[in-house]
Every structure is written in C-alpha cells, then in structure tokens.
Amino acid sequence: MLKNRIGNCLLGVALLLPGALYGSSGEAVKTFTGQATVQVVEVPVRVFDPSDGSRVRGLKAADFEIFENGEKREITNFSEIDIGTRGPAGIQGETPTQAEYRQMIYFFDLYLMEPRDRDRALEALRRQYAHGTRPLELVSIAAFDGTMHALLDSSRDRGKILKALDEISKLKAHGISQRIVFTNALTTTKVSGERKLDYYERRQRSREFMVEMERRVQRVGNAVLTAIQRFSGMEGRKILIVFSPGQPKTSWAPSFSPIDYINGDVAYPAQDLWENLALEASDLGFALYVIDSSGISTSSDSDASAGLSLGSGVFGGGDGPNRLPDTEEASAGVADPGSNQVPQNLGQWLERTRKNMLKDAAGTTGGESIFSKSILDAVDGIERQWRHWYSLAYTVDHPNPGAEKKIEVRLLKHREYRLEYRRAYRRRSAAEQDDGKMRSAMLFSSEANPLGIRVEFGEPKGRFHLGASRAKRIRIPIAVKIPLGRLEFLPQGDLFTAKVLLSFFSRDDKANQSPLAREEQRITVEKARFEEAMRGGYFTYRITVETEGGKQKISVGVQDDLSRKRSIVSRDFDF
Predict the structure, then answer these.
(1) Is residue 202 classed exposed, middle or buried when 0-12, 13-18 and 19+ CB atoms within 10 A define those classes?
(2) CA atoms of 240 and 243, how far apart (whole Å)
(3) Within this chain, do residues 106 and 238 fall inside the same structural domain, yes or no?
(4) What is the C-alpha separation between 288 and 273, in angstroms, rounded?
(5) Looking at the domain assignment, is residue 541 inside a domain?
(6) Residues 281 and 183 in one domain
C-alpha cells in the first residue's frame, strides 16, 4: 500500500487492478514523448549603471560571458529587447515578437493576507491600470483563499482587469482570523514557572508554534506552485507578482532560553518549499516578485538584508547562517548582527528570517522581495524594470534532471555595472512537468473532459488506524472508464498501442493537499478488432484509494500521451 501525506490530508493507492476490454501487451513502444535531453537555457539579463540607475543599452553578445556551475557556455542566441522604443501603443516599427510581450501575473495570497492589506494592493492595481496596460503588457490575476481562483488570463482589456480586481475584493481575506486562531490555539497552556518543568513546557510550545506555522506556509507555497504551473505555458516574459506576508502575522510567539536553541530541534517553517518554488519558477521562465502588502512591520526594513540570513534554516544547531549564536546573553529586542546576543522572542527571529527567505527565493529567479509602504510604487517599479533587457541563451545536455544548476553572467568590460538575472534553476523531468500541470488543473477546478472518461466511485468503507492524529480512514473503490475511440493509437506489428497517465489527488476543507499519485498504463488492441474497439470499446482502470475522514475532494485525471488531451473528474465527500 502506498500512502502519501501533506499536512493533515492523506491519499493512498491501496490496490491497482487495471483491466481492458481488448487485450494487453508488455512490448515497449519507443515513439512516446519525453525522450529529449538537450535543452536551451534562456537567461534574461537587466543591466544598470549604478551611478544613476539608468539602463545600459547597446551591448552585444561579445560583451557577455555566461557560466553554468562554473563552466563557461557558448552564447547561442542573443537579443536586446527595448520596450521603450515601441512608443505608447507598443507596436511602432516592426511587429513585436512573442518574446517582447510581458506577462504580468498577479497572485493574491488571501489565505494569509488581512483585509486591509488586500484592499491596499487592490487600490494600487486599480490606479496602475486606470488607463489601461503599458506597451506589450498582458495581465493575469489569480487568488488563493483556501481554494484556487483564476480570475483573468493574459488580457490587455482594461475593463476585464478592473472587473477581476473587483472579484478579488469579494473574496474573504483570512489573515486576521488566521492570526487570532493561530495565537489563541498556542497560548492556552501557561508555562508553570517551575524550574524543572519550565524548559520542557517552553520547548514543546516552541515546537507546536513552528509546526502550526509550517502548515499555513505550506498551504500557500503549494498554491503559488499551482499558479506557476497554470501560467507556465504563456509566451513572453513571465513576471509573477505575489502579494503575501509569507507567514501568518502574530503579536505572540514563544520565548526561548539558550538551552532551546542549543538543542537545535526547531526548523524554520517551509524554507525548503520556498527554495524549491523559486527553482521551479526559474526553470519555467518566471521572474518572481513578492510584495508584503502590510508594508514595513515591527522590525526595521533593513532586517531584510542584515543579521541572520538564509542558510541551513535551523533554529539552533548546525553551522548555517540562520543558526543563533551559542550564548546565554539575551536581548529584549532584535539582536545586533555583530554581537553575540540573541532575541528572547521567537517571533523576532521569524520576522527577520522571513524577509531573508523571501528575498533569496525571489532573487533566485531574477526578481526581488519588496517591503514598502507604497504598493503602487512597487508595482510600477516592477513594470519599469522590464522595459529593457538582454536575452542570452545557451544549450546544455542534462541526462539527469533534478540537480540544481547555478548561473553566473559577467561583463567583460564595465564590471561596475549592476546585472540582474536568474541565478539558479532545477530542470524537472517530463513526468514531473506532467504531474505539475495535472495538479494545477485539478486545483483550479478544471472539469474539462475531452476524453469522455467516466469515473464511478464505489461505496466508501471506514476503518480506524491507532496512533494517527486523525484515526478515521476511508477506503473508496474507483473505476475509471476511458473510451478507446478518444485516444491516439500507434501501429506496432499486429497491435495498435496507446498510453495514458492516470492521476489521483485529494485536498481537504482546510486547504491541505495530498501528493499526486500517478500511474502510466499502456493500452493495446489487436488490429483485427481495432475498428470495432474504436466504435464502442473502452478501457477500465480499477483502483482503491484511502483517505482521511472529514471533508475531502478527490480528483481523477487522465491524459493521453500522444494527443496531450487531459480529462479531470472530481467529487466531494464528507466522511
């Protein structure tokens, strides 16, 4: 039995019993997709003169050097893109290429944002687009409030943009309720004050605090990944602007003593998720910007670039930059980066590390994190940054996708110029790319069914699992029926062969998600019966999934490998 868990949501594949109306064969087919290993890596580079902040124009390919993991690469493609020469309409001179268009994708994290911060961001965007879009600019808008919402796809229409923003204003921003529930849940038990008990109680509260924090951050990170997958197929320069505080706001956090961080058993919430998110965004060609629409909060804005920076991400222990100093001296405020003092309140460390985490994640993609009182200035500044850039490209052969690749771009002359570009990426396998697209379609409630599949859910059966946080488990038999006439087949000897990818996924009413369970299935039909099969035959795939009790939405997806057509069917359960 295969079981996968994220947060409190569980989906397990318990039994696989595929069956076909017409024959089967184990012979390999070499003509299906996903075999190419050579890729072109495109790196957009913005060049600024630091003396006055102006853009540097007129550079040639010979002025640049580019390296991957320290190895120099040949620049195979080069172009200078200057939107400023297009004029107000953006179409003066030659017809613009797809590469010149800028896809401005706005993502609202309503799960952690408070209503006033949502409204500030909305007002800034209304003013930004009061008179329409800028030259060669297309706008998309999405939101996450526990459910994914796609409100606008790649539009220049001012009316549609403003309507989508109005729809955002009707969605609930849960930040204030998250804050209240979060702090109330963790402050109900008072530390006794007894010397022999104080350490254990404080340590347990610190652990509970970080676990609960991570659950919330994980949900938002998964939502951003889903949006990245949804918009990844867009042509042009993709600029993803995420309005999010990054973690729940709270006025309370557990205190700690030296023994707590020396013990080294509390990790910063979901740091790996944000690092992986940035690498995936970079691989798919996104420049990521994170705007904290709450503006400058309790600690100073300089905290984002000073003091404890991103590294091992552990609260105590290890040797990374986020390790708190081994000292018994403590200060009531934020520690001086040059001193050996540490803050007493975990929340102060979280605030500083949060900013560094968002800065590093955005910087990986060539974007940045912005903590500003003026959201309009931030949004306008991002658009202005992408009015001029250089596009450099090189080819690589990556037989083993998954390893992180470091990128470095240099100028042979004028080393004083400031360069901004994506600094790392991680190439995903073809299977991971398919999984991401399927997961995104399921979460955005895409119920298209071009393959005409039928999904029959059998009678759920409950059981109990001792020792689990949620003891109730539900097993559901599922039959997926796929019409053969909707699939693309390849001839192979005396057979016709097709291949489908079946995916199973669940999420609960608290926005927890299971990993995607996937199975590839070849379907073969004898030539003598092929015409008959195309008229009315079908392939039946049987499976039993196991999930936790409570409210769950279970989604089943089928993708034809050759035609790339994708069908999704979902059903809500309340066990």
Answers:
(1) middle
(2) 10
(3) yes
(4) 15
(5) yes
(6) yes
Q: Do residues 216 and 290 both lie within one domain?
A: yes
The count of domains in the chain is 3
Say if 186 falls within a structural domain. Answer: yes
Q: Which two tokens stand for residue 42?
A: 């495109």
Do residues 462 and 567 share a domain? yes
Polymer length of the chain:
575
| Co-location of 142 and 47 in the same domain | no
The token duo for 84 is 């400023």
What are the beta bridge partners of residue 142? 107, 150
- Residue 440 to residue 228: CA distance in whole angstroms: 8
Contact residues for 26 (Cβ-Cβ < 8 A; gap 6+) = none
Are 212 and 95 contained in the same domain?
no
Give the C-alpha separation, 469 to 386, whole Å: 48
Q: What is the pLDDT along the chain (575 residues), one digit of tens a residue?
A: 223 322 333 344 333 333 333 333 333 333 444 444 568 899 999 999 998 888 999 999 999 999 999 999 999 999 999 987 655 444 445 677 888 899 999 999 999 999 999 999 999 999 999 999 998 999 999 999 989 999 999 999 999 999 999 999 999 998 877 777 776 666 555 555 554 545 666 667 777 777 778 888 888 888 999 899 889 888 899 999 999 988 887 766 666 555 555 555 455 666 778 888 899 999 999 999 999 877 654 433 333 332 222 222 222 223 333 333 332 223 233 333 333 334 345 666 677 777 888 888 999 999 999 888 889 999 999 999 999 999 999 998 766 677 889 999 999 998 899 999 999 998 877 787 788 888 888 888 667 899 999 999 988 887 655 444 445 678 889 999 999 999 999 998 899 999 999 999 888 877 788 888 888 999 999 998 999 989 888 899 998 888 877 888 899 999 999 998 999 998 888 87
Cβ count within 10 A of residue 58: 7
Q: Find, among 372, 370, 351, the residue nearest to 359 by Cα.
A: 370
Start-to-end C-alpha separation, the chain: 21
Of the candidates 268, 277, 166, the residue with the CA atom closest to the CA atom of residue 232: 277
Are residue 91 and residue 107 in the same domain, yes or no? no
Q: 400 and 445: one domain?
A: no
Q: Is residue 139 one of the residues assigned to a domain?
A: yes
Give the residue among 421, 429, 433 at the shortest CA–CA distance from 68.
421
3-state SS of 122-162 is HHHHHHHCCCCCCCCEEEEEEEECCCEEEEEEEECCHHHHH
Q: Provide the CATH number for the domain around residue 187.
A: 3.40.50.410
Burial of 249 (0-12, 13-18, 19+ CB in 10 A): buried
**Among candidate residues 238, 230, 229, the one with its CA nearest the CA of residue 386:** 238
- Domain boundaries, position 355: 102-385
Helix (H) or strand (E) segment spanning residue 532: helix 530-536
**CATH number of the domain bearing residue 9:** 2.60.40.3880
Tokens of 258: 């030296």
Q: How many CB atoms lie within 10 A of CB 367?
A: 26
Token duo for residue 52 = 């006055």
For residue 434, being part of any structural domain is answered with: no
